[in-house]
Write a structure and sequence with these properties.
Layout (H helix, E strand, L loop, with lengths): L2 E5 L4 H12 L3 E6 L2 H11 L5 E5 L5 H15 L4 E4 L14 H29 L2 E5 L12 H21 L5 E7 L22 H12 L9 E4 L8
Parallel strand pairs: 1-2, 1-4, 2-3, 4-5, 5-6, 6-7
């Protein structure tokens, strides 16, 4: 049995990765700040395998430790961490509030640091795999994106440094950098027709499975993924 922990796993990319890993035989814990959302997601995911819903806030280190302890109490190990929880806040520097800045950095960057720190001892024991979900916004800046760009540029660099820190322990670390994905991110309402050109969440679930199947000697440490056809083409 292998065990995966997915932060922000109640919807979107996290939910799709959870479904993909459950179908591969993993036991999966999904976390969310909203336990009702986590429970609702788990009630659907249980059709694919053994799933645990946990209320946890990545911005709070103690909350992350408690979530990891719950996983270890239930299954005794952690093989894969998907640090997926993230938010978007988009505004000109003139309108960007202090609260929006801190919420974005604390969730998208510090939250990943907390998630990795809390699970690191368990992943060392399993010689496991850590994934962070960055973005093409982690290498491409844009107007109105100062907070989001800062968080994702930081996450991309953070993950690559962590990869170098941990490879000597037999731990793989990768960052996945998607472009436009059909999710509820930033209050978007997915539409099967209008979003048909976008990356679908299940595509990223398949990508994680494919990366986990790579030979142990080979590490795709940073993966950029974008829609094949741009919007409007």
């Amino acid at each position: 049995m292998k065990v995966a922990v997915i932060t922000g796993g109640s919807k979107g990319i996290g939910y799709a990765v959870a479904a993909s890993l459950l179908k591969e035989g993993y036991s999966v814990a999904i976390t969310s700040r909203n336990i009702a959302s986590a429970n609702e997601a788990a009630s659907k995911l249980v059709a694919f395998g053994d799933v645990l819903a946990i209320e946890a806030d990545v911005k709070n280190y103690q909350s992350q430790e408690e979530a990891i302890n719950l996983v270890l109490e239930k299954w005794g190990r952690i093989d894969v961490l998907i640090a997926n929880a993230g938010i978007g806040s988009f505004a000109s520097i003139e309108e960007l509030t202090l609260d929006a800045w801190h919420e974005t950095i604390d969730t998208n960057l510090t939250g990943v640091f907390y998630s990795i720190k809390a699970s690191l001892n368990a992943i060392k024991q399993s010689k496991g795999y850590i994934f962070t979900i960055s973005s093409l916004a982690g290498t491409n800046f844009f107007e109105g994106g100062s907070a989001y760009n800062a968080s994702k540029f930081g996450l991309t660099g953070f993950t690559q440094a962590v990869m170098l820190d941990l490879r000597k322990h037999g731990i793989k670390v990768s960052t996945i950098m998607p472009g436009s994905v059909s999710t509820y991110f930033n209050h978007h309402e997915p539409d099967q027709d209008k979003d048909s050109w976008k990356i679908q969440p299940e595509d990223l679930g398949q990508l994680v499975v494919d990366m986990l199947r790579m030979p142990a000697r080979t590490l795709p440490s940073k993966v950029e993924i974008r829609p094949t056809t741009p919007a409007g083409s």
